[in-house]
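Morning run. Coffee first, then this:
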Amino acid sequence: CFCNGFAKNCTFSRELYERTGHGSVCIDCVGNRGGPNCERCKLGFYRLPDSEGECLPCA
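And here it is:
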């Protein structure tokens, strides 16, 4: 899994693999994260530019 430390489980997606060359899709991202690799904040959350930690709720 390539989940940036925000998920412990993943599954394989052939579609993602065909588009990107890797098919790892993280399951149950934590820290208000989303995306195939927990690489971005969920809608309504943000991350400070110099932080790799949890995403914070928008005000």
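The helical segments are 14-20. Good start to the day.
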